[in-house]
Amino acid sequence: MDKYFTRKKGEEPRVNMEGRKLFQPTSRQVLYDKKSKIWIPNRKRTYLLWFKFLQHCERDESRTVDWSKYDGWGGSKEVLGSKF
């Protein structure tokens, strides 16, 4: 299991089918958020982009957001009124 999350320094990073390097931290601490004390399964950048996309969709009048999918997010006003 540790091999899945970490790689030894100096080892070549994993690549996908197109040859792009996959993110693989050299330490498990990259995946731990000290503030909320939870393990994060993906890079924070992924969540940031999703958050920005959700804000964009809520502001766009031609799109509708199903807020039942985002119960723990606090609703439209909370998402639009807060920074990531």
How does this structure look, described?
With 84 residues, this protein is mainly α. The chain is built from three helices and two strands. A hairpin with a 4-residue loop joins strand 1 and strand 2 (38-39). The longest helix is centred in the middle third of the chain and has 16 residues, at 44-59. The chain is elongated, with a radius of gyration of 17 Å.
Q: What are the SSEs and their pairings?
A:
Layout: H1 2-5, E1 32-33, E2 38-39, H2 44-59, H3 76-80
Antiparallel strand pairs: 1-2
Index terms:
3 helices, mainly alpha, two-stranded antiparallel ribbon, elongated, 30% helix, single chain
Determine the number of helices (DSSP H or I, runs of at least 4 residues): 3
Tell me how many strands there are: 2
Estimate percent helicity: 25-40%
How many angstroms does the end-to-end distance come to?
Answer: 30 Å
- Which strand-content bin applies to the residues? under 5%
Strand numbers in spatial order across the main sheet = 1-2
Radius of gyration: 17 Å
The structural class is mainly alpha
Silhouette: elongated
Summarize the main sheet: 2 strands, antiparallel
Averaged pLDDT, please?
Answer: 79
Low-confidence stretches: none
Order of SSEs:
HEEHH
